[in-house]
Amino acid sequence: MKILKVLAVSLAGLIIVLSITAVVVLKVFLPEEKIKSYIADYAKNNFNREVTFDKLSFALIGIDLKNFKISERSTLNDGTFIKAGHFTIKISPLPLLSKKIEITNILLDDVDINISKDKNGKFNFDDIIESFQSSKNENDKTGVTKKTDTEKPNVSDISTENKGTENSKNDLNKNITSEDKENNSFKIIIDSLTIKDSDIHFSDIKAELTASIKNFDLSINDFSSAENFWCDASCDIDVKQKKLHIAIPVKTRFQTHLNNFDLEKMLLNIETFQTKYNNAEFALTGTVENMNMPKIDCNAAVKNINEKTVKDFIKIKNFNISKIDFKTKTVVNISSQNANIESLSFVLPKSSSKISGAVDWSKENLLYNLKINLDLFTDDFKDFFPEYNLKGKILSDMNVSDKNISGTVKLKSMAFDYLPAVQVSDLNADCVMKSVKNITVKSIDGIFNKGKFKADGSFINNDIKLNLDMDKLTIKTSSAAATTTSAQKKTEQNKTDENKKTQSAKNEKQNGSEKQNTSSAKNNKTETYNIYTNININEINVPYLISKNAALKTSLKSVSCDMKKTDGTFDLVISTGTITDTDKLAENKYAKLFLLIFNALNNNITAKSKSSGIDYESMTAKVTFTKGVMQTNKVEIKIPLTAMDVKGSVDFNTEKVDMKVNTGLYAAMKITGTISNPKTSFDAAATVTEILNDPKKLENVGKKLGDSLKNLFNKK
Q1: Which of 282, 284, 283, 290 shows the shortest CA–CA distance to 256?
Q2: Contact 439, 423 (CB under 8 A)
Q3: Which one-letter DSSP state was computed for residue 175?
Q4: For 604-633, what is the mean pLDDT?
């Protein structure tokens, strides 16, 4: 849009020159210095601009100006608005006899135009537009052009008449003198207007934007300020805004209607608009109405989009899209900095979208309210992310705003890879979203790592519900990658910890109690969730756990990372499997607490157990949470040697642990301390009581244990 605006402004600048030219043509017999004086007076009185040129020479009914300059407001000391190294006008002599000014050619060579927009949104040419508009309104009211106070009334009359609706193919009914104002009229016709090797510079202080249109060539035939005419233009555009830098060539042909420079009535009919950007080719056709609030109705196509095209905005490797077609009907309010999108659509080989709504960028944060319909085949995007092997279809009907998202999403026969861990195929889903905190998954099914599954669930006002049935849950990991990642994380964590310590010391010294208040405020905002699940999985092989089947049911309220407010029940049953990578699993403080149950028994008593894992026949956990205190109702773990029973509690508010483990081997243990620092110890009283209650089993237990029992008594 800035390109179109600049072209309109360029023509507005030229109208000043044409007005001056009318005076010169009718006064060719005057000395050069006298003509200069008239031109300067006209520009000063009508536009408050200074005009200068080095030399004026006459050809056969024509003039040539060298080093022509028009100032910014007031004088050239305030800057140069327009300058031209060479300015030539040629006039056909015969039409003058019929009171017609027929300009056969206008040539502007080496033109430099400077356009700026200040922090209040005002352009440096607004005064020129206002002058034209004011003159037009005055003429519409009185039917007579207002005279200016110059020393030559006749010349002033002509000059001022040119101010309003000059260069029109319609009769302008100009007054040349008071005696012949009823009989004399002039038609002004311009056969051709040419601009060569020119530059237009634009700056927007508020948007921190600078733009240049360089090597600007413009060719216009049958120019008119009141009727349609055709333009051919080409240039190189260079735009900079903060870190963004875009340089593109442009070639265009369009028909325009200036409507006497009434911006609201201006019209552009774009026959062709072509440009290239980082390998991609862009072509556009359409219309633009009303330069104050541009109404855009355009069709566009972009070809050969690849990673080089978007490198200034996003880093993506190895993708290519042969063509995307766009269509839009949009009204842009430049002064209010908002847009009303009546329709915007794009079409790929298989995919399409439709977008409508409003966008407002006048404030610090972008405001938008859009309706988006998507019909996407992920095959069209697989070249963006070739490693994910995308397939399938996404259907979406969404309302998206800066405040909320709502609508429906459907997945059909989707497939993607995230190797080596995940491979999904034949994925189907039906989702309804009323807001970001009101999402319902009516159904979802597919194949996850060769295991079929189906599920439904919802996330509504922090209530999470999930029903899931899976034939098999398998997640593969690369141990080498995991080790490398772990080492990197430790190194990065060490650096982070050091930086945090240094920064923490500084903050404590500078901010004192302010830091504590901020921390307290953050803690008070901890998000909690209510979690209701019913999960059944027939076979599990994931990091840390291998199992034949598992069933999990939860009904938990106020769940958070610290579990301090949690209420409800948690029921888990897992059969026949192995807990793997116990050393790494123990890095999590909650998992470490669970593993202490096995430590109480001592892992090496089971012949089938590996040094990094624990074999089990079944695990059952039924626990109750009451205001952050977990109470074990039934926690039973069966291993090949014995069955263990766990009773007790964990208080997540104080982190206090108080549990007793009956090993089933007449060796009762206690787990005490805190969640972060739990301790195991031999419970002599409980062990003696158990032996006394059932002494006959002791002999068989001793035979099973052998030397392993000794380790229990050596535990610290």
Answers
A1: 290
A2: no
A3: -
A4: 78
- Per-residue pLDDT, averaged over 7-36, amounts to 53
Q: Where are the beta strands (DSSP E) in 627-711?
A: 629-638, 643-651, 656-662, 668-673, 678-682
pLDDT of 486 over the 70 cut: no
**If we measure between CA atoms, which residue out of 299, 253, 303 comes closest to residue 276?**
303
Question: Strand, coil or helix: what is 294?
Answer: coil
Tokens 């439904």 found at: 456
Per the CB < 8 A criterion, the answer to whether 89 and 62 are in contact is yes
- DSSP assignment of 59-128: ETTEEEEEEEEEEEES-GGG-EEEEEEEEEEEEESGGGGGTEEEEEEEEEEEEEEEEEE-TTS-BTTHHH
**Measured between alpha carbons, how far is 70 from 81 in angstroms, rounded to an integer?**
6
CA distance 630 to 559: 12
pLDDT for residue 157: 35
C-alpha 286/C-alpha 269 separation (Å) is 6
**Closest by CA position to 326, among listed 349, 352, 311, 345:** 345
CA distances from 581 to 612, 671, 713 (A): 5, 22, 26
- Tens of pLDDT, residue by residue over 368-402, are 999 999 999 988 877 777 788 889 999 999 999 99
Q: Which residues pair with 671 in a beta bridge?
A: 659, 680
Rounded distance, CA 700 to CA 713, Å? Answer: 19
Determine the Cα–Cα distance for residues 179 and 233; give it in Å rounded to an integer.
44
Q: How far is CA 548 from the centre of its chain?
A: 45
**640 vs 679 pLDDT, higher one:** 679
Count Cβ atoms below 10 Å from residue 401 Cβ, excluding itself.
14
420's tokens? 């080596």
- In three state form, how does the secondary structure of 249-287 look? EEEEEEEEECHHHCCCCCEEEEEEEEEEECCEEEEEEEE
The β-bridge relationship of strands 545-559 and 320-333 is: unpaired
Name, of 73-82, 220-229, 627-636, the range with top average pLDDT: 627-636
Banded model confidence at residue 491, pLDDT cuts 50, 70, 90: very low
Structure tokens at 578: 């192995």
Q: Helix axis angle, 126-142 relative to 153-165, nearest 10°?
A: 100
DSSP 8-state secondary structure symbol assigned to residue 385? S
- Tokens for 339, please give them: 């847009």
Residue type (1 letter), 122: K
pLDDT above 90 for 683? no
In this structure, the number of other CB atoms found within 10 A of the CB of residue 142 comes to 9
- CA 385-391-397 angle, to 5 degrees, is 95
Q: Are 82 and 13 in contact (CB under 8 A)?
A: yes
Residue position matching structure tokens 């800066």: 402
- What residue has token string 């397939």? 391
Backbone φ, ψ for residue 708 (5° rounding): -65, -30
How many whole angstroms from its chain centre is CA 148?
54
Region 563-584: mean pLDDT is 90
Distances (CA, A) of 169 to 20, 87, 225, 265: 18, 23, 8, 18
E-strand ranges in 122-208 read 187-204
3-state secondary structure of 77: helix
Does the pTM exceed 0.85?
no
Token look-up 């977990």 returns 630
Compute the residue count for the chain: 716
Strands 267-277 and 280-289: antiparallel
**Can you tell me whether residue 332 is helix, strand or coil?**
strand
Start-to-end Cα distance in the chain: 77
The amino acid present at 421, given as its one-letter code, is A
Q: What would the pLDDT profile of 590-603 be if each residue is shown by its tens digit?
A: 787 777 777 766 54
Q: Residue 262: what pLDDT?
A: 83
Best CA proximity match to 85, nearest among 68, 63, 106, 64 = 68
CA 341 to chain centre: 17
Query: pLDDT tens across 246-291, in order?
Result: 888 999 999 988 888 788 888 999 999 999 988 889 999 999 998 8
What was the pLDDT predicted at 149?
Answer: 40
